[in-house]
Structures are given as C-alpha cells and as structure tokens.
Amino acid sequence: MCGIVGIYLKTKKFEKNLGKMLSAMLNNMESRGPDSAGFAIYKDESKKIYKFSLCINDLNFNNFKKEISKKIKKAKSDSSPIPDNLNDLEKNPLRAGANGSGTVRNSEYVTLADLQKNKARENVEGRNVNVTGKIDFQPTKNITLTAGGNYNYSKSHTYIYSYSLFNSVNNPEYINHDYTAFLRWKQRLNTDSVSWVKGAYYQLQADYSSSIGVNWDDSHQDDFFKYGYVGQFKTHKKSLYDYENSGASGDAYYFQGDQDVLYEFLGGGDNPNAANYASQFYSLYNSYPEGNYENWTQAQSGGALLNGDRPEHVYGLWYNTGRQYNGYSKEENNQLRFNGVFAANLFKNHQINMGFEHEERIKRAYLMSPIGLWEQMRQLANAKNTELDLNNPELTFSNGVFTDTVNYNYLYQGLEGGKGFYENIRDKNGMAYDEFYDSDFYGPESYDLALFSADEMLGIDGLGSAYGYDYTGRKIKTGSFTDYLQKKDDKGSFLRHSAPFNPIYSSGYIQDKFQFNDIVLNIGLRIDRYDANQMVLKDPYLLNFQKLPFYIAITYMQHQK
C-alpha cells in the first residue's frame, strides 16, 4: 500500500512550523506500512539550492545519524547557506571551543560564499520635513511689518561601516528639530522737503532660533539602564573557614570570607541578540559550572556576554551581532538676535550706511555611554565592604556551649565625599551597609541615575560629560566655578553643576561710499565685541593686546575708470 500527503505553503511565516506539520502527517501514515517513510521539501527553483530525499528502511539510529550527517555535510560544502543566514548567526552566535572549554564565534566561519551584494545600505532610512512661512503687513504707505519663520525636522539612522555586515539593526538614530522666527519693522522716511537727503529708511529686526538634537539607540532612547542589559544573573556564594590554634577567640574555625561558587544565568533581558551569547554559553556547558561559570569572570572569559558587555569585532573589520550602540547625547542651542540698519543718500554723492547687531547664545550638551552603567554598578556595588570587621567577632553557641566557630561581618569602609551608589542602593532596598549587593540580579526598572553621585557619572572615572545639564540630564540655568567646586547635595556629594555656554556678540558700523573724480571710495568704521563669558585659567604670559574689548577695521578703496 502507498500513501502520499503534501502541504503547499503560500505564506512564508508558516515555514518555521513546517517540520511540526510534516511530522504529524508522517505519524498518522505510520500505520499504512512499515516498509519506508520519507519526506521531501521543494522550494523555488535555484541552481544553488539542493534537494535531498531521505528514505528510512532498516537503518538503526547510529547508522541513520552517520548517513544524515554525510548528506548535511555535502549540502553545506556544495551549496550556499540558507537565505536567512544572518538570523541564524543572531540566534546561535557561539559554538563550543575545540579543547572542550570556552567558545568560538560562529561569525568567524563566514566565507565569501555566504555573502551577496546589496544595492542599498541597510537600516539607514530617514525622513525630513521643512516648513517655511512669511507674512507682510503694511499699516501705512511707508511702513512694512514682516513676520516669518522656519521649522525643519529630520530623523534618520546613522550608517556605521563596522556594523554593516552583521549588526546594521543596531545603527543609532539621530533626531533634530530646528526652529527660527523673526519680526521685522521697516520704515521709509519722508524726505521730500529735504533736498540733500534721498532714499532714507531704517529697519529693525528681532529673531530667535533654536536647535534641539538627540542621538541614541532608538530601541531604548533615554531608558539608560536598558542599554547593555543582557539579562538576570545571580551570584551564589559559600563561606570559607580556617581552623586556627590559639586564635583571637581560642582554638576554633574562623570565618575567612565568601567565595563565589556559581554565577547563574536566569533569563534574557531587553537585548535578545546579546542575551543569546549568554544563553548559548550556558547551554553548551549545562550542569558544568566548574571552570566555566563559577563566577562572573569565568563566564565572561568563556564567551558569555554579561550586563554591560558587547561582542567584539570579526576579522578586525566588522562588529558582531548583538553589539549595541553605546552612545547617548543631546544638545540644545538657542540664539536671540537684534539688528538695525539705517541707509540714506546725502548730498547726491554720499551713500551712508550704519547699523548694529547684538546676539546672545545659550548652548547645552549632555553626553553619556550608558552601557557602562552596568560595569560601573558592578565595580561600585561592594567596593566599600571588602574587609572583615576583625574587632567584633561573633562566636556561635548551642545551648550555651561554644561551637568552635567564629564569624565576622564585613566592615563598611565609608570614604569622604558623601553618599554614592554604594550607600544609595542599600538605602533604597533597606539593606545594611555591610551586606553584599548583587547588582546583576536586578533589572533596569530597579535603577535610576540619581542613585549615583555626580563624580561617579562625570569626569575621568565617570561615563559622560555635561554643561547646561546636571549629571542626570536635567537642565540647569546657572552655575559658576564656585558651584562646581563647592556646591553639594543634601547627602554630602558634589553636584558638579556646569553652566551653559553663554557667549555674547555685539557690533556696530558706519560706512560712506562716495566718488571723487574717477575714484570710488568706501570708507567706514566697524567695531566688533565678542565676550565668551567663560572662566579660564589665568595666563600671566598673555599679550596685552588680546585683552582689548574691541577691534577696528577700515574698509578698502576701489579705483574706477
């Protein structure tokens, strides 16, 4: 007897369930006879894709494994990889090391045969919107009032060459808003009764412009603790004791400290492609923590990504799958400007122009490397309880009898400089300052930037820089060098407020253009003043002329036949 069943898939999304569907069919047909059963999968015709039909007769399981392995090896050597190769690398980034320890990145096995040309760069789409408007109003014959403005919006993903092969999905996003608005008053003066003045007018204008931009990973935006979050890890410890004769409390077992015995991975987080490095590493060495993941340094060196880790490059050229963009920045630039112009023809031979300009700017910027928050927390979480409080032993008793065991608590070594992450996270969770805190056990929702001090976020040992913003990214209006060096919060930590950059520019000019015989002369005077409005270190060797508040420029003379 013979039975044949088939399924024709019209929708690509069901392809992942094809094996389950065919298996169910074969199970139902098993009763038709024991002689043979097999299946074949046909796709669109292609010279680069092979079809293998398998017929299972009297093969035992081991022989079947050998035969199917031969077919698969031949398919891999004779044909191109499956079309969704990048997706496979994202899901399976690692393989076990050749010596039975550690891992090797599967992307290192990519060959030229696995590549295809693409006419467009991936994940670099963008959009731009520009709106411009202007209106003129003339209340009288000689007066014109003009108002107008411009708005530009741009949003795009930035192309990174080293991301282009394996990691274009993590190209960062840039968003910018530009605003400009102005109001202009222009009046022509009535000089009909004055014979020596013609074409006189003046113009006054005020304008305001603002530019606001942000650069980030669009999947997390300003949710900083989701950057670099691989998943939940738990540290398991055991207490170590050493027997001492004639110790401080007599012959007994004395507590020496805790030793990590297991660094457990409990599940992935907000970056699944990065979490695959951890989950696959733990799967490869399932139930074998010795030498692999007894502590976080072993897991990291073995190839698992921890919170705050990113995969390294492949072939020294392209960054691997799951490498998240480690950058967040925002800036805001505002400008208020006033200017005026007066022009007239005097005595038929002189063209007089005079005017002024005044401009004030406010510039703010905030930059951070948010992925580093996890490493920073791991370093700070237990930095102040590394020593034992040997002056306060805790003897154990049973029914009033000493049980030959002496314990010690860890000694909190508070440092000058106020409270930081170490103290704040324990205050938040109701923990004593001598307790161990497992920072990787808690998810992004458990943290915020206010748990750190400004010195832990900014500067040499920090993760970013800011002016016009505080270390958490909130705007500040003012600040001085005194504030930066001395001002503290209610916890005794420095605030490190740095004021926005606020330069001031002013200028004024007057010019006369007239003709003498066959020579046209342009003679004028212009004064420019720029005030950086910024404190700098004193320089005793600075030349005096650099301190002049203004500069004078005389315009050119032009000969004309």
Could you explain how this protein is built, in words?
The chain is an alpha+beta fold. Among the domains are: 12-78, no CATH class; 128-220 and 332-362 and 503-559, no CATH class. The chain has 9 helices and 23 strands. Strands 5, 6, 7, 8, 13, 14, 19, 20, 21, 22 and 23 form an 11-stranded antiparallel β-sheet that branches. The longest helix has 18 residues, at 61-78.
Number of strands: 23
Determine Rg (CA atoms, Å). 37 Å
| Separate helix tally | 9
What is the global morphology? flat
Strand content: 35-45%
Summing up helix and strand content along with how strands pair, one would put the structural category as alpha+beta
The CA-CA distance between the termini, in Å, is 112 Å
Considering the chains and any ligands shown, give keywords for the structure.
alpha+beta; 37% strand; four-stranded mixed sheet; 23 strands; eleven-stranded antiparallel sheet; 561 residues; flat; single chain
What is the topology?
Layout: H1 18-29, E1 37-39, E2 54-56, H2 61-78, H3 85-91, E3 94-96, E4 103-105, E5 126-140, E6 143-157, E7 173-188, E8 197-216, E9 231-247, E10 250-268, H4 272-284, H5 296-302, E11 313-314, E12 318-319, E13 328-346, E14 350-368, H6 372-380, E15 387-388, E16 394-398, E17 401-407, E18 410-411, H7 421-429, H8 454-457, E19 464-467, H9 481-486, E20 504-516, E21 519-531, E22 551-553, E23 557-559
Parallel strand pairs: 10-17
Antiparallel strand pairs: 1-2, 3-4, 5-6, 6-7, 7-8, 8-13, 9-10, 11-12, 13-14, 14-19, 14-20, 15-18, 16-17, 20-21, 21-22, 21-23
